[in-house]
Task: inverse folding
């Protein structure tokens, strides 16, 4: 991977089951959303009954049973997606009852932030921070150090 190199445009779409509750988590999500916008389009979809997006792109599901990656490995996935001119990277997180079977069965990859289970609200902030961190790794910026 070439660090610091400009890459193709990609839109990051965060698909969350339910609304992000106003308060500290919401503020963190909005902060990282603004930071990520420097490098990519950002969209947040919040729906009670989340469905697989029909737009072209790569669909990534977050689940405690998914593949655990280092921040560098995660950045590689984003970098390769941009190099392949992927239009959208969709990240799906479930709510208290998990995620719908359609998304779980059709996701291109299932990732885990940890083997532990986290509150579904907190996962939103953690995911956006990791996406931001990935972009700083790709661009060779000091945030990750």
Result:
């Amino acid at each position: 991977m070439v660090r610091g190199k400009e890459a193709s445009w990609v839109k990051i779409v965060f698909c969350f089951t339910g609304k992000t509750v106003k308060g500290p988590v919401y503020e963190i999500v909005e902060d990282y959303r603004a930071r990520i916008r420097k490098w990519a389009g950002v969209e947040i979809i919040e729906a009670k009954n989340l469905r697989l997006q029909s737009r072209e792109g790569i669909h990534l599901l977050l689940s405690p049973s998914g593949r655990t990656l280092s921040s560098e490995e995660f950045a590689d996935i984003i970098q390769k997606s941009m190099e392949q001119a992927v239009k959208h990277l969709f990240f799906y997180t479930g709510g208290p009852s998990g995620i719908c079977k359609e998304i779980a069965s059709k996701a291109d990859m299932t990732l885990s932030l940890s083997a532990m289970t986290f509150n579904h609200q907190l996962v939103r902030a953690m995911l956006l921070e990791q996406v931001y961190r990935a972009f700083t790794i790709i661009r060779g910026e000091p945030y990750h150090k």
Summary: Confidence is low (pLDDT under 50) at residues 1-7. DSSP finds four helices and five strands in the chain. The radius of gyration is 14 Å. The first strand starts at residue 11 and ends at 17.
